[in-house]
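Sanity check record (used in CI):
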Amino acid sequence: MEGIFLKKNIWKKLGITLMVGGILASTAGCSSDSSGSAKEKNSDPNALTIFSESSTYEGKVGGYVGKAIKEATGVSLSVVPNTVGGTSRLETRLTTGDLGDLMVFTNSDDFNKAIKAGVVADISKDMKDMKNINRFTDAVNRMEKEYDGKLYGIPTTVSADAEVTRTNPQNIPAMRYDYYKELGSPQVKNYWDYLDLAEQMMKTHPKTDKGDKMYGISLFSEWDGKSINLLRGLANNFGYTDRDGLNTYNFLEVGVKDDSMKDILAENSIYMQGLSWLNDAHRRGILDPDSASQTWEDYLKKAEKGQSALLMWGYMGELNYNPTNPNMTAQSKGYKMVPNDTMVAVDAKTSTIGNNWFWAISSKSKKKEKALKFLDYMYSDEGAMMYENGPQGVLWDLNKEGKPELTELGQNFGSSDTKASKDVGGGAIADTFKKLVNGPTIDQNAINPLYEEPSLRTIWTSYLKESATPLDKEWTADYGGALNAKEYLVEKGQSVSYPVVDVPTWKYDDDLEVVVNQVGDVIKEYSWKMIYANDEATFNSLKKEMLEKTTNLGYKKCVDFETKQAKVWTDARGQ
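Expected output for ABC transporter substrate-binding protein:
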């Protein structure tokens, strides 16, 4: 692949922040930038440049993907990432107006800055020719309502209908399934029972199969916001969420079934119960002592080596450990999600209004018609499938039932060493449009009507069946034939998916933001101290200090503001 990747490990991070699964990818690339001079690019009437806030790659979109796009739309593409060496180029390029022909924005603030700078085209009058984008009326209407009838951009991850997805929710815990079966597959009545099982597993297996230290639970702190990030997700196992699809609530747990709300420092909140639970893990000696200081990469390495009996983000077992250790899964050893009896797993339905990432056309582009044609193609069913998996016939094809399945070459999906044949364009098969540009259009979890399956290959029926390891097959047999945890929970009535509705994206005002940051710093500091308290008296003393300090700083103002915003959401989703 011609071009260069500018950051080494961001793809593994994006696999989590996008939650919609399967973006974990290798980032190996060659070190030469062959994107060519600006003059060369501009001289080609069919060459378009994409300025992307989400990409880590700079250079041409070539290989089998570039060839397929050229055949479908008549254009060739180059990518310019916003961030280089940790420094954003957006402000400079807003001043010069040099943002290529198309842009991908990853937040509303930058999108609005670009609009105010006059570098984003209003495409409302062009919509008559955009037959694919026009299908997503809720998303288009949302944008036109926000900008007084003007259409400056199209939200990403849109869906024609609000669908319950097949994807496993991120926060369902996974355990070493072979260890769980060694214990006799005991009943797990509630979330807190996992601790007893993790302790038993750690005592029986103090070392991993390769001799590394085994922990009951491991955490990391690098992604903590206004509280411990990993712990906030715990509420998703109890019927609560902290996000509505457009906004994140830093201090609330919002009920999905009954619209109830708890602030995270309330005595009965899931967050506070979780702190007590993790403190119990520490006092039992089964919590990784590095949890408060380790980075995401540290945590990921331990997950890949199987150093936790319990993974709070259960997908990491099935997407990180299991594929890294095929010799283990072949022996029915590895991680699988283990639901508990009282679990109410929460996730969002596919969104008809999209999210807060946006595709836009540059007002400075001299190739607007070409850019519009390309963008409309990317919002087609064919384009959505191509974005995820490349063109039909290379890594995937249709089986006798007309459903997508991986080809023999596609069995190596993600491999930077495996090349496509020259007749289809060549290049590393790992270099998909998704990897190079990272600008989604249609939600990968939505059923693609052209193929009657989602675009996300890891939840195709063919993939779940044909790629099943002996470990997967054993789990399926134990869980009544379900192909994954989501299917099992839906069948048991233990899954609740909420609709993403059109509510305002909100911000704290400047004064409140200061309070929010101060309160958040206290919550983070004391949460970790409470987890590592050596006795109950110390835990309770730290808890009292945290509550007093946050109260004095103005915690109630933060909660009151978010409660008002959350009420708008709960009212809207009930209409």
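Residues 7-41 have pLDDT under 50 and may be disordered. If this sentence no longer matches the regenerated tokens, the check is flagged for review.
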